[in-house]
Amino acid sequence: MVLSTAVSPAESTIDDPRRRRAVLITVCIALMAVIASVTGLNVAQPDLAVQFGASQSTVLWIINTYTIALAALLLPLGALGDRLGRRPVLLAGLLVFGAANVAGGLATSSEAMIAARLASGVGAAMIMPVTLAVITSTFPQQERSRAIGVWTAVAGGGGILGMYLSALLVDVADWRWLFALPVALVAVAFVLSLRFVPNSRERSPHRFDVVGSLASVVAVVGLILMLHEGPVSGWTATPTLLSLAVGVAGAIAFVVWERRHRAPLLDVRQFRVRGLASGSVTLLAVFGVQAGIFVVMFPFFQSVLGWSGLRSTLALLPMMVLMMAASALAPRVAARAGARSTMAAGVAFCAGGLATMAVFVSVDGGYLSVLPGMLVMGLGMGLSMTPSTEAITLALPAERQGVASALNDVTREFGTALGIALLGAVLSAGYRNAIDDRIGDLEGPAGDAARAGIATALTTEGPQAEALVRAAQEAFVAGWRHAMWAGVAVMAVLLLYVLARGPKPRA
């Protein structure tokens, strides 16, 4: 265990409830800026390609560089916030993040844009773990669950809200205005942080774990790159296997080093604690399924239903609003029923929502064929995420809350990448099998376009175009069903795990 002394309660815990609310608002605004930037540029991919003359691969690097930097640096920078002080690290992160977004909005080349996104990821990794650590060190125990519920709602719903606002800005203005939203949020958060956020930090007689930090960065970068490259280059391609090897080697080195170090970045033996393990696994699976659902829903709305990007984003809002409401309600449910029962109920609702969408989705049924399942899924995500987050923070001592928050955030990022890779691959395989059954041995440009994917199938012309489009839409729905049932299988295994190894009831 880490030998350290925590700050005194007078240094961090706030007695004034109005100031506590101000602190919560402040960190949620900062968190919203970080989360909105994860998804914001997704709606501007065509604009970026035209503006910079960039290939699709380069555009993906512009988008993914931010996520990779954020995920790789969360643990070391979260621990650094514990050491140096959470308030100064939060303020520094806001400055770096704001300046990087200004640079991104003014970028004149793809190289400059990638550099700006990399710097944004560094700033975001300074901000995100500190926001949750400030809550856990500032709020008294009887109010902490409710505050974490609000934080979780913002973390879960901020991405889709940012995507909606980004789509609106792209439609009515220009893609460069996408960077105005995070800059404005950062400016507000910076001013409020100076006024309301107290400082708290860990005092440790040991040096900062530099080796463990470097090993964690190597592990996260390698594994995230593997999950990103697998669906694009192929799971047996050299870049994918090389990334996997680097990630696994980094992970093994991290575990070996942390078990021997006197003051580890993350004491891996803590995963024997049921709350830490079950909370991490639940967030990994739930966020993975959520991210995978977004991957399959947008093509359904745009290619099957023919909706615009803005309308497609708006269609997700009912699910996300219900998820945010359930996240805020989850602490009350957990207080009555227990954290394990609440997590299990949330996972069960997630499985039920996925199964409902798998059974009732159809081309002719449209949006109403998937809306009930979306709503049930949103309820389940909200109920499961808040007690999972609290289980992680409760498993580590107060002076290690930056690490606890970072672990929570890394788990979310890994889950997102894993869910996109898994459900995206299942959807693609299901589509290929279904389209072959529907078009038979059709050769030529029309057959090639239909087999390549639903987006290219919609571009076909000629007398067969209408039949091919219908076949592609039905094949996509078939692939959708496969992806949803894969999600149900993941949730079923997770439910059994939570029931067996979920957090123990608190006295």
From TrEMBL:
Domain Major facilitator superfamily (MFS) profile residues, every copy: 23-504
Protein name: Drug resistance transporter, EmrB/QacA subfamily
Topology class, membrane: Multi-pass membrane protein
Record Pfam families: MFS_1
Residue ranges crossing the lipid bilayer per the database entry: 22-44, 59-77, 89-108, 114-135, 147-169, 175-196, 208-228, 240-257, 278-301, 313-330, 342-363, 410-431, 483-500
Any one cellular-component term (Gene Ontology): plasma membrane
Keywords: Membrane, Transmembrane, Transmembrane helix
An example Gene Ontology molecular-function term: transmembrane transporter activity
Lineage, opening ranks: Bacteria, Bacillati, Actinomycetota, Actinomycetes, Glycomycetales
CDD domains tied to this protein: MFS_MMR_MDR_like
Record bears the keyword Membrane: yes
Alphabetized SUPFAM superfamilies for the sequence: MFS general substrate transporter
Cell compartments where the protein resides: Cell membrane
Domain of life per record: Bacteria
Family annotation (PROSITE patterns): MFS (PS50850)
Keyword Transmembrane helix: yes
